[in-house]
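Predict fold of TnpA family transposase; 1004 aa.
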Amino acid sequence: MAGAVFSDEELEGLRRFPEIGREELFRFFRLTPADVAFVDPGRGRGPADRLGLAVALCTLPWLGFVPDDVASAPRAAVARLAEQLGIDPDVIGSYGRRAKTRTDHQRLAAQYLGWRQAGSLELKELDEFLLARAMEHDLPSLLFRLASEYLISAKVIRPGPVTVVKRVAHARELARQETYDRLAHALTTERCTALDDLLAVDAAIGTTRLRWLNTGPVGASPAAVKAEVAKLGFLRGMGAHTLDLSSLPAERRRFLATVGRRLTAQALQRREPQRRYPILLTLVAQSATGVLDEVVALFDQAVSARESKAGDRMRDALAERATAGEDRQGLLDAILAIAADPAVPDEEVGGLVRGERIGWQRLRAAQATALPPLPRDHGRLAALDASYGYLRQFTPQVLETVVFAGGTAAGDLLAAVGLLRELNATGARKVPAAAPVGFVPTRWRGYLDTAAACGNTSSYRHYWELCVLLALRDGLRSGDVWVPGSRRYADPGASLLTPEQWDQQRAEFCRLVGRPAEATGGLAALEDELHAALGELEATLADGDGPVRLDDAGELVISPLSAEDIPAEAVALKTELTEMLPFAPIVSLLIELDRRTGFLDCFTHAGGKQTRSAELKRNLIAVLLSHATNLGLTRMADACGISYDILAWAEEWYVREETLRAANLALIGYHQNLPLTPIFGTGTLSSSDGQRFPTRGKSTTARPMNRYFAHEGLSTYSAVTDQHTTYGTKVIVATKREAHYVLDEILGNAADVPITEHATDTHGVTLVNFGLFDLLGLQLSPRIRDLGKITLYRTGSKSDAEAAFPHAGPLLTRRANLELVAEHWDDLLRLAGSLKFGHATASLLVGKLSASGRQNALAAALKEYGALRRTIFAARYLSDPSYRRKIARQLNKGESLHALKRDLLYAHEGAIRGRHLEAQTEQAWCLTLATNAVVTWTTEYYGLALDSLRRSGRRVDDEVLAHVSPAHSENINFFGAIEVDIDAELAQLGPTGYRPLRAPDTLF
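Predicted 3D structure, encoded as C-alpha cells:
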C-alpha cells in the first residue's frame, strides 16, 4: 500500500536526513548547558558517542525521529554541535558502529526530552487526527507531513514511513466512506439515477450532460445567455440549488468538484458508487452557483455591449446633427453680427435681418430645417431603443429564472423588475399607470414623460423596460441589488464579519493594523497627519521657484520628474556581469532551478494520487513552457518529442492555479534568500500594473480596444515586489478598472513578502482604495496623472485653512464630512477587518463600493475618508522629490518585467488563444512562473559573477548594484529545439552545482 503512495526511492528518502536550512540549523542545533551536561564525558562516553548523542538529541525535535545512520547528518549541523562540545566533527564517522549504541542513545535522548514511543493509544489519536485532516485534504504527501508535524507537537517518536503511509491510506479510505455517509441523506434513488444520467450521452444535445455543464460560454450573445439559463433550469430541476453540503468541509467539496470536472464520463462510470456519487453531487451543487453567476455576468455583459453600441450611434448622430446645423450656425453668426453692431440703430435691425443682409428666403429655410431639442442624455437611450428587439431575445428568460433582492434603496427597482417579469409572463404590452418610476434617473425621465404625454404606450414600454434593465445592471454592480444563491453577486453585507464576530476580533485587528478602535482617536491622528503634510507642501510652495509651485493665477504647476540619472558605472557593471553569465536554454534554466528549489514538486495530482513517474518532471517542464512561450501543446509536442496525449494528461491533472501559485512561491522564497536580493529592495514595497495581450477567437474576457488591439484582447494584472519578483497575477477584462483588483494579491499574498507600501499608476487609484489601504495599515503610493487637477480636501473652514497655510490652503477646495466618517468608523474598521481576515474578496467589495451611489452611507463615508488620505498623499508626494522618484523607480521595475514577459510569450504573435477564464489564468501563471525563474536564475548568477569580481580585488558598491536589474533575457535562449533531458542537463553542472561563468570577451 505504501508503494502506491510513495516510490521506494521516496520512502528511503523519508528515512534519511533531509537538507537543512539556515533557520532550522540555528533553531534546533543549539545545546543548552543542561544538554551539554547530559552528554558529559563523565558518563563514560568518548568524543564520537558524545557527538552522536548530541546529534540525536537535536534531531528528534527537528524531524520527530532519528535516522539510523546518524553519521550522515548534515555536515553543517554536525560542525555546529562539535564546536559547542569542543570536539572534532570528523569523529562522527566512527559513531554507532554497534546498533545497540544508537538504539540506547535514542532512547536516552527521548527520555531526556520527554518524548515517548508510538503505542496503540498514540496511533489511535493519530488516526483520529488524520481522518479529520483527510476530510479537508486528500493529498497523501500533505497528510504525511501533517501527521509528522502532529507527532512532533505531541512529542511522539515517528514510526517508520511505511507505518505512517499505511495510516494515511487508511485515513483517506475512511474519509471517502465518511464523505458518503454524510451525503447519504441526499443520495436518494431518484437523485442517484439523475446523477448517473449525467454520464450518458443525451440525444437532445449530442453529448453527455456532464460535459455540457462543464463547457462554459465564449461570448455574451443571446444564444449564450439562453444556453446558460437552460443549464440553470436543468440543475434546478435536479434540485442542485437546494443541496446543503455544509456537512462536508469546504476543502473537501472543492476537491471532489475538481476531480469531477477533470474526469471523463467513462472514468466516472467505472468508479464505485461510494466514490462516484459524492463527486457528482458536489459538482452539480457547485455548478448551480457557478452557472447562476454566469447567467448574471452574461446579462451584464450583453446589456453593456448594446449600451456601448448605442453610445457610438449617439455620437455619430450628434456629429451628423452638428454637420446639418452648420447653415443655422452661420445664420446665427450673421444675425449676431447685425444685432451686436452698435452702429446699427435698433429700428433698422429687423429690416437688415429680413432684407438685404440676410433675407426671408434664408430665414424660412433655416426655420424649415429646425431640429428638435436634444434630451438630457443627448439621445443615448433613444439609440439603445434600436437594440430593444435584441435585448428581448434573452432578458425575459433571465428575469424569469433569476431571483433578485436588495435593500430599501432598491425597493422601487425591485418592484419594477417584478412588474416587468409579470408583463413578460402574461404577454401584456402596456405598462400600468401606477408602475414604479422612482428608480429612473433624471436624464431619462423626459423620455417617459414625452411618451406618456403623447399617449404612445409602445414607446413608454420600450423606454421604461430599458430603464429597468439598465438600473438592474447598475444595482448588481453596486451591490444595491443582489442574487440569493450567487457567489459573485451575493449580498455584500453577508461577506462581512457579523457584529458578533467583529466584537471578538476588533481588538486583534486594530492591533495588527495600528488603528484606534474609537473614531475620536482615529480622526485626531488623521488631522495631525493632514496638517503635517500640508505644512511640508506649504514650505515647498513658499519657495516659489521649484518644480512644484504656484503660477500667477494661484494654479498648481507640477514640472515633470526628470529621468533618473543612472550612474555610468552601473551601466558598465551590468554589461560586464551579463557577459560573465553563461548562456542557457530556458529548459536548462528550469531544470537547474528545480534541483535547488524543488518547485516542480509543488505540482500535485488533482485527484490526490501521489506516485510520480520518472518522466513527470520532464512532462511538466514541457507543459509550462508550452504556455509560457505560447507554443501550445501541439507545437510543443513536435518540438520536444513528447506525445500530445502525455502532455495533455499532465496539464489536465497537475497544472492548475493552486499548484502554479505554490511553485511560484517556492521560487520567490528561494530568490528572497539569495545574497544579492536585499540590494534590489527591502521586499516591503510592491507595485501592480496591467499588461494587455491580444486574443484569438471568442472569449467572455476579451474586449475590443482600438488603442491596444487590432481586434480584441484582455489584461493580466500583476503585483511585483521591489526585488523584481512577481507574487500575484490575475486575468481581468481589459475595459474594467484595474483599481478594483489592487488589493486582491496583496491580501491574498501567501509568500513571506511583508508588503507595507504599494505603488500603482493612475488606473489603480480610487478614493475607496485610498481609504481601505490606510484602514488595513498599508500605504498606497500611486503616480497620478494630472495630479494638480484632483480635488483636495480640508477638515475645517476655508478661512481657517488659508490662514494656517497661505499657499497650500487655497488649493483645498472642498471640506470633508468628518461627521459621516465618525458615524461609520466602526463599520469602516469592520469592512477592513473582513478583508484582512479573508471573509470577503477585495475586488468584489471595492468594485461594489466604488459603484455605489450617495444613498450607500458606508460607501460615502469610505470615500470621504479616502479623499482625506489622498490629500495627505498628494501633499507629501508634491513636497518630496525622493518619494516621487521611489514610486517611479518601482513602476519601472514592473515595466521591465512586462518587457520580459513579451519576450517569453513570442509564439503566435503573443495572442492568447484560451477561450475560458480558467485556461487564460493558468497560462498567465505559467508565464509568471517562467518570468520569476529567469529573474531568480539571473540574480543567482549575478551573485556568482560578483563574487568572482570581488575575489579578484574589484570593489563593487551596493549603491551601484541597486541599479542593475535581473529582469532581462540576454543570456537565455527561448527559441530553437526544445529537448527536455533532465539527467543530461544536470550532468553539465559543475562540482558546485552551477554552470561555469564565462571569461570576459568570449562567446562560450
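The first helix runs from residue 2 to 5.
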